[in-house]
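Project outcomes to date are best conveyed with an example. Our students and postdoctoral researchers have been running inverse folding experiments weekly, and each run begins with a structure described purely in tokens. The record below, which covers 158 residues, was selected by the lab manager from last quarter's runs and is presented without edits.
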């Protein structure tokens, strides 16, 4: 079995998003009274009483800026929850948010969607990642929620 790493939104990007999100709006922090929001900064669910913010994030656009890719119409932005203030990041290497159906979306080095796969059980992620990366054209994976299509985290080759 191969181990793949879920990459949260990085600290430098989080700092930028806390100043203004990818839609150009300032964040509106709130106290999460119920808990359970999927936090993309530390890849866990929020606890009741934590300060969080819902911000607009463009994961492929930011990856493309680092790599020189041109995702064109595949560039998307959508809502993600983050801590309102800096956090320590993920506390372990366990695959996050694997307790529900997820979509593993494949992207080329040019930032184009190459397909996707529905993953329905926690033990199926490793197989889905391995299958995706056997295609030499696949450079990046996004794991997304099925219900809303929201970005959860990315997995990179190697």
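After processing, the design step wrote out the following sequence:
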């Amino acid at each position: 079995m191969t181990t793949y790493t879920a990459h949260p939104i990085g600290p430098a990007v989080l700092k930028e998003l806390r100043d203004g999100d990818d839609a150009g709006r300032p964040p509106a922090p709130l106290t999460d009274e119920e808990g359970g929001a999927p936090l993309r900064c530390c890849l866990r669910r929020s606890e009741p009483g934590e300060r969080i913010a819902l911000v607009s994030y463009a994961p492929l656009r930011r990856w493309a800026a680092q790599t020189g890719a041109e995702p064109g119409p595949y560039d998307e932005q959508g809502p993600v929850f983050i801590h309102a203030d800096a956090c320590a990041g993920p506390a372990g290497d366990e695959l996050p948010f694997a307790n529900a159906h997820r979509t593993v979306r494949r992207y080329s080095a040019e930032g184009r969607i190459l397909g996707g796969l529905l993953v329905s059980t926690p033990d199926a992620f490793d197989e889905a990642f391995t299958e995706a990366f056997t295609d030499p054209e696949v450079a990046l994976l996004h794991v997304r929620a099925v219900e809303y299509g929201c970005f959860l985290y990315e997995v990179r080759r190697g």
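The mean pLDDT is 94. The longest strand covers residues 50-57. The training component of this project remains on track.
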